[in-house]
Amino acid sequence: xxxxxxxxxxxxxxRSGLRLLLSGEPDIEVVAEAxxxxxxxxxxxxxxxxVCLVDIRMPGLDGVEVTRALAGPAVxxxxxxxxxxxxxxxxYVYGAxxxxxxGFVLKDAGPALLVEAVRAAHTGGTLVSPSITPRLLxxxxxxxxxxxxSERELEVVLAISRGxxxxxxxxxxxxxxxxxxxxxxxVQRKLGLRNxxxxxxxxxxxxxxx
Length: 210
Known about the structure:
Elements: E1 3-8, H1 12-23, E2 28-34, H2 37-47, E3 51-54, H3 63-71, E4 81-85, H4 90-98, E5 103-106, H5 111-122, E6 127-128, H6 133-143, H7 151-161, H8 166-173, H9 177-191, H10 196-205
Helix pairs in contact: 2-3, 3-4, 6-10, 7-9, 7-10, 8-9
InterPro entries: CheY-like_superfamily, NreC/VraR/RcsB-like_REC, Sig_transdc_resp-reg_C-effctor, Sig_transdc_resp-reg_receiver, Tscrpt_reg_LuxR_C, WalR-like
Keywords: DNA-binding, Phosphoprotein, Transcription, Transcription regulation
Pfam families: GerE, Response_reg
């Protein structure tokens, strides 16, 4: 199955480089490009790509605003957004993740990580650049409560940390999709976490993952 990708970056040379990189992969196709945030949102809503690669600093709407528009809590049918940027400022990272991004990759992290992030996003997983992960873990540890998780909630957390989608979790645990969503919401509430990226980070930090 081909992964359809939208590129959003205000620099033509960067978009060209990303297109060249991704088009070299047999399972990835770049279906659209946008040089500003407004165009990115319009194209994404019309074309419904599998993954949107979005830069942080763009005219019109920045990457965090684009992420909220396409993947935020208020979006009925959210798209999968991976932020790709040269800026690893904490406010950008947390703003993007709170906005619904399923990945945050620095442009200097290398082509292999970018391709891995696209594939992870497509399958419902998450990926954050290694240089950012320690800061994310510290934030998650400070913000987490000590309320215990049930055995079923721990199973869901483990599955999320392994990149499983809600549908895959439901099938593996023989429960309904709505039940999975309820468990995910319960985990977020108990641990004070905002999204699946932070759930996965909490799982690794607290040795939930064998």
